[in-house]
Amino acid sequence: MVKVNSRPVIFWKPTDASLIWTSAPILVSLISFFTFVYQGNQLTVSVAFTSIALFSLIRQLLGVIPVWIVQILQTGVALKRIEKCLEEDEVDGQVSSIKKACAPHVDGEDDTLSIENAFFKWNEVPEKPEENSKAKGRVHPFVT
Q1: Which of 54, 68, 85, 118 is the most buried (most CB within 10 A)?
Q2: Which residues, 6+ apart, have CB-to-CB distance to 62 below 8 Å?
C-alpha cells in the first residue's frame, strides 16, 4: 500500500541562501524607499542618491551579520556538546587508563610491559671502504 505524504515539500538549495544574501541590500533599499514614500515624503533625486550612497556604505556591515549568526549558532552547539561531555558519569578504574597510571605499583602484580637493561640499535648498512676512497678522489662533472 502506498502512503501519501500530505506535507508540502520545500526545496532549499545553497544557491537560494546565496541569492537571498546577495539581493538583501537591494531589498533593504527598496523597502526603505517604499516606507519613505508611504509616510508622505517626496522621493527626490538627491534623497535617492544620498540614500543609495549610505546603503552602499553599510553593505559590508550587513554582510557580516550572517557570519555572526553562524558563529553564534556554532558556539551554542559547541557549548552544548561540552556540557554533555562534562555531565557524563565517571568511568570505572578498569576502563580508564588515566586512573591506572595513578595507581601505586604493587610488587608481584605487574600488568604492564617493561624492558630493563636493554640496548636498542638501528639497522646499520656497512660502508664499503673501496667506494669511500674512490668517492673522495673523484670530482663531480658539473663542479668546476
Answers
A1: 54
A2: 24, 25, 28
Identify which of 48, 44, 19 has the alpha carbon closest to the alpha carbon of residue 32: 48
Which amino acid is it at 136? K
In the structure, how many helices (H) and strands (E) does the chain have?
4, 0
User: d(Cα 62, Cα 25) in Å, to the nearest integer?
Assistant: 8
pLDDT in tens, 8-21: 555 556 666 677 77
The whole-model pTM stands at 0.38
Tell me the per-residue pLDDT of 100-127, one tens digit each, with 9 for 90 and over: 555 565 666 666 677 888 888 878 777 7
CA distance 33 to 27: 10
Please give the grid coordinates belonging to residue 10: 520545500
DSSP strands (E only) in 35-87:
none
